[in-house]
Amino acid sequence: MTGHRFPFHHLPDDLYSKVLEIMDHYDIILYSFVSKKAYSMAKTLRLPISSVKILMTANPEIILQIGVTSISFRLIMRTDRIPMASLDYLPVRVRVVKGGVQREIAQLIISNQGMTIGEWIKHLCSISDKDTLYEARFYTGIIKCDIQSHPNTFPKLRIIYISCPRGAIHEDDILTAHNVLRAFLPDAQNVTLHDVPLPKDLSFQHIGMANLKVLKIDPPSILVFDDLSTWNVENCTIHLNQMPLRELNRFFKLWMKGSNPRLKKLRVSVWDTEIIPDCNVLLKGLKAKAEYVYEESKKYTIKNCRRIRAEIKIDTSDDSADFVLTVLN
Amino acid sequence: MSSTEQGTSSAAPAEPTTAPESAAAPEVPESFYYVHGKDKVVHKVSAGALQHSALIHGMISNLGYTEEQAKANPFPFENIDGDILQMVVDWCNQHKGKPTPPEDTNLPKQKEKLFDLVLAVNYLEIKELLTYCCKQVAMMVKGKSPEEIREIWMIPTDAEDEAAEKEAKKRAGKEAAGETAAAAGDAK
């Protein structure tokens, strides 16, 4: 450290602000931890943070995106604090990394600043501009805390990702997924559920009927495909391990009769399958017009009762198949 | 560079030596003005160099002083230390009639004087130098941890801030009470 010291807070307000405006965003964010006054000053600068991503893993990470620069705060936890039963745990230390386009620019290890996990999340989410996009990823095998008991810790999340460990389903995982969805689904626009077991009172049907822009699911249990026609999602991606050809055909027919008016894109991917999909079953009764037909790639167009056109694209490989319905106008 | 000489603002200063002319000296004879700080040392500065300061430029733009009048009436800046004013004058002379570069390597090196320099430059309204100084202040904490920032910038802790606020409130309360008592006494 240099020996020179500077009584920064003795500067007149206009100069104080001028120095902060000149500073790098990375340094302003670190300055915001110095005191309440510093935090309040950093907030008034309305930093152009476009998105904040919160990764609720064993060592939670909060990543701020400012233009092409990302600033990540990884909270290093004690190993006996895993799984995380509370947001009131104190990190041991915090690793701050400033990254540019595909490279690391700066790295710093700082103390926990006397702040709990919840306080770190709250602090870093609250210095952003109002238009910031907030995203959180929850890994239920690692997170065991009741998110709903911390209503003011998280901002309104627009993007939620929940992942459960594969294999045996634990009641804890169901409860955590349930808590996260109950807390954030009303404000969410983009939801991804990866192997998430759902409780009886919150089915995929409930989630599909929320006004989501994007929903991506790979359900651990069999999805009732016929429910899809009541979903209200704009862009839906479903990963399955069984090919629902008849159900998809029924869904396309219902779409042609006017169901799912908000739908712009539906993608159904089937993995680990050696069965070649029979397009005759999929397209039966649709009056689909072939755009091109090759062995591994086919494209058809269909039209609904409102004369809105959609294309159905089918791509197959040795062990996977991909069906995409794209609404054209 | 400017020349300096001991003197007072009230008495006419002795003849200061002239500043060296820039390589591309204007054909029209340049006018000079005189400034002094707290230490009363008078600095002779060309009008071209002083244009950097919006404050001084505003003061002299309509004065129409002759050389003699300017010599007899140096601008007094009693709130600026002599050595700080010297730095400012040097900088103005170095950047006379030149476009200011994005990064200035001619900034004063004495970092311990930076606080006074920032205040002086702000007062004299020298926009470019103020920007350079603020950059230098910002650079002091570049890549530092919150603890280091607190130490370098001498930032009080929340507890110290709260204690100072309480103290200020207490003082204000006492002053208000004193004024009320004085007003009541006057009324009697």
Automatic annotation (TrEMBL), chain A:
<dbReference type="InterPro" id="IPR012885">
    <property type="entry name" value="F-box_Sdz-33"/>
</dbReference>
<dbReference type="Pfam" id="PF07735">
    <property type="entry name" value="FBA_2"/>
</dbReference>
<dbReference type="InterPro" id="IPR001810">
    <property type="entry name" value="F-box_dom"/>
</dbReference>
<dbReference type="InterPro" id="IPR053222">
    <property type="entry name" value="Zygotic_Embryogenesis-Asso"/>
</dbReference>
<feature type="domain" description="F-box">
    <location>
        <begin position="5"/>
        <end position="52"/>
    </location>
</feature>
<protein>
    <recommendedName>
        <fullName>F-box domain-containing protein</fullName>
    </recommendedName>
</protein>
<dbReference type="Pfam" id="PF00646">
    <property type="entry name" value="F-box"/>
</dbReference>
From TrEMBL, chain B:
<feature type="compositionally biased region" description="Basic and acidic residues">
    <location>
        <begin position="165"/>
        <end position="177"/>
    </location>
</feature>
<dbReference type="InterPro" id="IPR016073">
    <property type="entry name" value="Skp1_comp_POZ"/>
</dbReference>
<dbReference type="GO" id="GO:0016567">
    <property type="term" value="P:protein ubiquitination"/>
</dbReference>
<comment type="pathway">
    <text>Protein modification; protein ubiquitination.</text>
</comment>
<feature type="compositionally biased region" description="Low complexity">
    <location>
        <begin position="8"/>
        <end position="25"/>
    </location>
</feature>
<comment type="similarity">
    <text>Belongs to the SKP1 family.</text>
</comment>
<feature type="domain" description="SKP1 component POZ">
    <location>
        <begin position="38"/>
        <end position="96"/>
    </location>
</feature>
<feature type="region of interest" description="Disordered">
    <location>
        <begin position="160"/>
        <end position="188"/>
    </location>
</feature>
<dbReference type="InterPro" id="IPR011333">
    <property type="entry name" value="SKP1/BTB/POZ_sf"/>
</dbReference>
<feature type="region of interest" description="Disordered">
    <location>
        <begin position="1"/>
        <end position="25"/>
    </location>
</feature>
<dbReference type="InterPro" id="IPR001232">
    <property type="entry name" value="SKP1-like"/>
</dbReference>
<dbReference type="InterPro" id="IPR036296">
    <property type="entry name" value="SKP1-like_dim_sf"/>
</dbReference>
<protein>
    <recommendedName>
        <fullName>Skp1-related protein</fullName>
    </recommendedName>
</protein>
<dbReference type="GO" id="GO:0006511">
    <property type="term" value="P:ubiquitin-dependent protein catabolic process"/>
</dbReference>
<keyword id="KW-0833">Ubl conjugation pathway</keyword>
<feature type="compositionally biased region" description="Low complexity">
    <location>
        <begin position="178"/>
        <end position="188"/>
    </location>
</feature>
<dbReference type="Pfam" id="PF03931">
    <property type="entry name" value="Skp1_POZ"/>
</dbReference>
<dbReference type="InterPro" id="IPR016072">
    <property type="entry name" value="Skp1_comp_dimer"/>
</dbReference>
<comment type="function">
    <text>Probable essential component of SCF (SKP1-CUL1-F-box protein) E3 ubiquitin-protein ligase complexes, which mediate the ubiquitination and subsequent proteasomal degradation of target proteins. Regulates cell proliferation during embryonic and larval development.</text>
</comment>
<feature type="domain" description="SKP1 component dimerisation">
    <location>
        <begin position="127"/>
        <end position="170"/>
    </location>
</feature>
<dbReference type="Pfam" id="PF01466">
    <property type="entry name" value="Skp1"/>
</dbReference>
<dbReference type="InterPro" id="IPR016897">
    <property type="entry name" value="SKP1"/>
</dbReference>
